[in-house]
């Protein structure tokens, strides 16, 4: 009898872990990967999309194995339906190698810029060995990443005359039932931001992942106004040598009344939209595990 009860309890735990504990909600996690960026989006049925994977300056340190994977497998399976690389900089790429090699992954999306050298060859080998679908995307593409949960590609447009790698980063907007929830703009700076702002696309989102880790070159009050977020998150490392986020970026965001968090101080930042409660959202950080529930984004 006791063995049966233990088995039943273990099965319940496995089922809960598989569902991630967030059925009926949408969530975004800006993961703590040091001086890099990784964002995990989870739809109402638990389908996950990983946008970038961080990456250590030291190529011999497997950040994907020792930092990213433990965060993704806490109370969940090692599965990510979609992996997106916004651009091939190592602080967005290297953490993805472990995920792509060991997790159940259906498709890999990128902006057409393939990593150079050994890292590009390594990425190609892993994708081929795992038979993962590779898709090049551009502005105008829309990807279903869950029931009524859509990932819109806003940038770059085909044939765009931009030569800086950062400014060709994918800019992604996660939308649920027509409402903009998250904008992830990779490492775009002045040139890319200007090209993005020239379009008539809807950029509104409750959560803005601040471009290029909050660098001075990414400062754009016009972009902040177009997105009109309730919360902005800077993904950056503790005591990073670049001193990200730049003081002018932090000041410009806070002056508009936007709540600003940074992973260098707060650790992982998790935002959840409870669909059953008409969009009441909550925010949680690793250093403050209590749920902050003050209508961080307007109700649907």
Structure commentary:
The protein is of the alpha/beta class and 300 residues long. It is built from 9 helices and 15 strands. The strands form 2 sheets. It has an 8-stranded mixed sheet with strand order 6-5-4-3-2-1-14-15, with no helix packed on it. A 7-stranded mixed sheet has the order 7-8-9-10-11-12-13. Helix 6 (190-198) links the parallel strand 10 and strand 11 (207-209). The termini are far apart.
Please outline what is shown here.
The protein has helices spanning 2-19, 63-73, 90-93, 96-102, 117-130, 190-198, 221-227, 247-255, 263-266; strands at 25-30, 39-42, 48-51, 82-85, 107-110, 133-136, 142-146, 149-155, 171-176, 179-184, 207-209, 231-234, 259-262, 269-274, 280-285.
Keywords for this entry:
alpha/beta; 7-stranded mixed sheet; 9 helices; 15 strands
Shape: globular
* Total strands: 15
Q: Could you give the order of strands across the largest sheet? A: 6-5-4-3-2-1-14-15
Count of alpha and pi helical runs = 9
Q: What proportion strand?
A: 15-25%
How is the biggest beta sheet arranged? 8 strands, mixed
Radius of gyration: 19 Å
What portion of residues is helical?
Answer: 25-40%
Structural class: alpha/beta
First-residue to last-residue Cα separation: 48 Å
Residue stretches low in confidence (pLDDT < 50, at least 5 long) are 8-22, 289-300
Query: What's the mean pLDDT score?
Result: 88
Run of helices and strands? HEEEHEHHEHEEEEEHEHEHEHEE
């Amino acid at each position: 009898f006791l063995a049966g009860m233990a088995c039943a309890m273990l099965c319940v735990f496995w089922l809960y872990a598989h569902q991630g504990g967030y059925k009926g909600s949408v969530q975004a996690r800006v993961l703590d990967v040091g001086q890099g960026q990784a964002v995990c989006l989870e739809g109402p049925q638990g389908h996950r999309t990983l946008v970038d994977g961080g990456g250590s300056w030291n190529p011999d340190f497997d950040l994907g194995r020792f930092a990213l994977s433990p965060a993704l497998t806490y109370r969940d399976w090692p599965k990510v339906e979609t992996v997106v690389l916004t651009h091939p900089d190592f602080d967005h790429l290297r953490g993805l190698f472990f995920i792509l090699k060991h997790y159940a992954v259906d498709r890999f999306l990128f902006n057409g810029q393939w990593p150079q050298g050994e890292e590009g060859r390594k990425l190609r080998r892993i994708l081929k060995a795992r038979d993962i679908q590779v898709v090049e995307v551009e502005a105008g593409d829309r990807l279903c990443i869950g029931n009524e949960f859509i990932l819109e590609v806003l940038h770059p447009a085909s044939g765009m005359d931009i030569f800086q790698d950062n400014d060709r980063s994918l800019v992604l907007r996660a939308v649920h039932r027509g409402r903009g929830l998250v904008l992830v703009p990779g490492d775009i700076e002045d040139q890319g931001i200007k090209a993005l702002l020239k379009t008539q696309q809807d950029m509104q989102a409750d959560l803005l992942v601040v471009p290029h880790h909050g660098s001075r070159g990414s400062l754009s009050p016009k972009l902040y106004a177009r997105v009109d977020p309730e919360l902005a998150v800077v993904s950056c490392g503790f005591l990073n040598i670049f001193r990200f986020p730049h003081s002018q970026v932090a000041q410009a965001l806070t002056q508009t009344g936007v709540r600003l968090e940074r992973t260098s101080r707060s650790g992982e930042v998790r935002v959840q939209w409870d669909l059953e409660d008409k969009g009441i959202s909550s925010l949680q950080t690793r250093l403050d595990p209590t749920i902050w529930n003050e209508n961080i984004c307007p109700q649907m």
